[in-house]
Amino acid sequence: MGRTYRYRKQRQKLANEHEQIKDERFLPDLYKYLSSLGWRNKSQLTARNFAATGRGLCSKSLTLEIGSELINLPSDALLSIKTLENDEDFKELFDESKFDKDHKISFQALMAFYILFQKVLGDNSKFLAYLKSLPSFFTTPYFCPIAELQCLPENILEKTVEQNRLIKLAYNNLKTVIKITDFEVQYPLQQFRWSYFVVNTRSVYVFGKQLKSEKSFFQTLITEDCNLALAPFLDLFNHSDQVTTQADLIRNSQTKELEFILTLESCENSKIPPLQQIFISYGALTNLKLLSEYGFFLPSNRHDYFEFSLNDIENFLHTEKTLKGRVFHKNKFKFIREHNLCDQMFVHCVEGISHNLHVVLHLLFKEESYFPNILNQVAFGSVENLQNVNEDVKLLLKFKLNEYEIFIKSLESIKTLSKSGTVAKSYLQECHKYLNDCIVTIAC
């Protein structure tokens, strides 16, 4: 009971930290738009503001149980490659003669540009009701100002830098293949960043070939399969690690039309009463993944673990006072990198350390030899031959604990944090708590 109460209080605090203005007046128009495409609100879904998460969905009067369809959208309601291929006005923007291997873009980037294109159309957009339902900002670390980014851990910075690289590359390639001369004026980079994260945070997976259009204008422009779509209204569901859901794009046996169906597979108490928020699962995602891709995290996330990089290990070896004067042969680090043992090095607060972390710490702290043939025998031999490294793990965890305390204090020293910075600080505090829990587990 105590843990559940703390969990709810933490969720409420997080919702307050990155709350957006929730204007629900878009709902009637969105209902009307989806109904015109054949959608029937069988689950009696409606949007409400919830203390723990902000805006979410619930059923007005139905109790939903395991196996219940949460939502059933006709495929025509999805914004997919078929939508883009059938939009002649959108295709008119592109100079097909410039489609070549040097200016390809991902389908996510193309979909992001389509959302921006529709936003620029304003009241003339046929997706106006959907556009009004989209958030006006996102709280991923990507949107942190530089001063805040400088206070964040390396793993978050690396992800943010990669996102920025992909966004700028896509934007520049779009600028090349678009006919209009004032591209940057009509479609500013800052707005493209917003639309990129609309797609990043709200798209659903679909098998692209099921929604394939008879037209193939964009085929030579995009770099990958078109296995994502935007799903109006469905994207108002919030994520929880306490539920599992199944998404399927299947053909209705009576109408023969494709439908995107989301089904409840499991949840707490096996049922969801009316007016209680309905959560879905985005997948078994860690808090780092949720933060960097979606802009939030879950307190006490059951899918979470704390991952280490080889740089973390090397920094630890250089700064840990009890290891002063100890030599760690470069052959060991070379062996670890060449055999990808530095992947999946993590600790779980219940299950303990991963196999790769155990092997790496054994090679560094317990194995005297640095010859590759001996290291190979140890790393890929019997698990029983690996010595206990719990004391080394505790030192490593305390090292990261101190590091995260510095990150948190650095953010706290900034007078006014952005919304992204505020969420990032809360995430670091959750990591700090998680590291403490791991130390307790290892000590037992």
> Could you give a short account of the major beta sheet?
3 strands, antiparallel
Gap from first CA to last CA:
24 Å
* Helix proportion range: 40-55%
User: How many helical stretches?
Assistant: 17
Poorly predicted runs? 1-7
Query: What oligomeric assembly is this protein in?
Result: single chain
Mean pLDDT: 93
Helix- and strand-based class? Answer: alpha+beta
Q: Which band does the percent of strand residues land in? A: 5-15%
Task: Evaluate the radius of gyration.
Answer: 25 Å
Which sequence of strands runs across the widest sheet? 4-9-8
The tally of beta strands, per DSSP, is 14
Shape: globular
Describe the 3D structure.
This protein is an alpha+beta fold. Helices cover 44% and strands 13% of the residues. The protein is built from 17 helices and 14 strands. The protein has helices at residues 2-17, 26-36, 81-85, 88-91, 107-121, 128-131, 146-149, 154-177, 183-186, 189-202, 287-294, 310-319, 330-338, 355-365, 372-379, 390-412, 419-443, and strands at residues 45-50, 54-59, 64-65, 69-74, 203-205, 228-230, 238-239, 244-251, 258-266, 271-272, 279-280, 306-308, 345-348, 352-353. Strands 4-9-8 form a 3-stranded antiparallel β-sheet, with no helix packed on it. It has a 3-stranded antiparallel β-sheet with strand order 12-13-14. A two-stranded antiparallel sheet has the order 1-2. Strand 8 (244-251) and strand 9 form a beta hairpin. Helix 5 (107-121) packs across helix 10. It is globular and about 70 Å long. The two termini are 24 Å apart. Residues 1-7 have low confidence and may be disordered.
